Amino acid sequence: TEATGKGIVVTFNISEGRSTVVKDISFMGNTVVSSKTLKGILSMKTVGVFNKGAFQESQLELDKQSILAYYQNRGYIDVSLLDVVRTVTYNEEDNCDELYIQYVIQEGSQYTFAGITFTGNTIFSTAKLRELVKLHDGEVFNLGKFQEGLVAITDLYYENGYTSNYFNPLENKNVETHQIDVNF
Q: Is the Cβ–Cβ distance between 21 and 55 less than 8 Å?
């Protein structure tokens, strides 16, 4: 900083460093879903003719959630990302860091929906509440669809003025039969 007769002049010295580009994205542990399919759902893309491939940490976090949601909406509710391995190499010619990303996935087993029961509902019938859950018995358990049904049920109560209700969905996951039933 430097004081002048008109005020203070602030000078910023910035050391920008090198850019980081995503050179490759790969997957390990995926047997049910192909790597090509998983790459297709990612927002982060590798560097190429039509893509700068600039790495952004926020995109990586979104992509991790996208991978988990993709599996969970196909019945693999126990899916987990065990690790995201990052390997960086320096490209002297382009003066940039090249990032290689590998998602390590544990898929788990696929679950089906074994039904939902309701207790404590006196205002709306079980049939009315059941129709809001868009999963049918025996279907692959789709977590996203199931959660939409739960939101629809709570909205039904709230929109009709019942704002002090308590909702408690209890999931029963049978690891032997790979089925999930819910008591709401």
A: yes
Sole residue written with tokens 């004081």:
3
With tokens 């203070």, the residue in question is 8
Q: What is the CA radius of gyration of the chain?
A: 25
Q: Which helix (H) or strand (E) holds 25?
A: strand 19-28
The pLDDT tens digits for 117-154 are: 999 999 999 999 999 999 999 999 999 999 999 999 99
Query: Environment class of residue 130 by beta-carbon count within 10 Å: exposed (0-12), middle (13-18) or buried (19+)?
Result: middle
The Cα angle at residue 29 between residues 23 and 35, in degrees rounded to 5: 45
* C-alpha to C-alpha distance for 29 and 179, rounded to whole angstroms: 23
User: Residue 1's pLDDT is what?
Assistant: 66
Which residues touch 76 (CB under 8 Å, ≥6 apart)?
Answer: 32, 107, 108, 109, 110, 111
Three state DSSP letters for 31-71: CCCCHHHHHHHCCCCCCECCECCECCHHHHHHHHHHHHHHH
Q: What is the largest CA-CA distance in the chain?
A: 81
**Nearest alpha carbon to residue 22 among 45, 51, 50, 49:** 45
For 113-173, the DSSP string reads: EEEEE--S--SS-HHHHHHHS---TTSB--HHHHHHHHHHHHHHHHHTT--S-----EEEE
